[in-house]
Amino acid sequence: MATSVLEPFAAPQLRGAARATAGTPDAGRRLPLAVLSAGVVGIVESVGLLAVALTGLDGVLSSVRPGGVLIGAGLVLLAGWIVLCAGSGAALIDGAGRRLFAGVAYAEMVLVAALLVAATVLPVPNPTPLPLPTLGLVVLAVPVGKLLLAGAPSAQRWIAQGPRLRIRRPDPVAAHRVLATLTLGVIGASLCAVAVLAPVPAGSVTDPASTVFTQD
Q: What global pTM score does this model have?
């Protein structure tokens, strides 16, 4: 019983001693599958949100026609959501922590619940052939899955070990300065040769003024 009481106080020292005696940074540390899956889900979700925003934002703005303040606030919230999804997933993979990842997942659950309530009260068009309850459950599965993956025992042990140490590598440009200078010189000489030996024909450039015509 005494060891169980003193275990929270001894755990940071034991972790530090284990990492100090490892010999090399992150020796023996393997990325758990749950952590990798959760991080990939967050990054893929951010890419999907960006794709949906680029493809469907024009149609939403043309149909709803909100004010400038609402458009700006919506774009800022959408951009923040995308950045938080990708950043929290990367932080979880790096071992920096899972509070941001879990916070984004909880916020997404609240957002989905609010949208479902709004869809049942207001006449909101359904862009998919699925019923609204089924669509809500499908969308809700993403944050629930993120929470389950981030709360797995392997993920908790990964976070408890702390962020991974980075191995400092020498700058390749500083190590191969002569080669980098020669490469830059060859690229510049090639561009100059293309500009000199392959000039633009005189008749290929169309005067913008000649394309303007008046109709009597």
A: 0.61
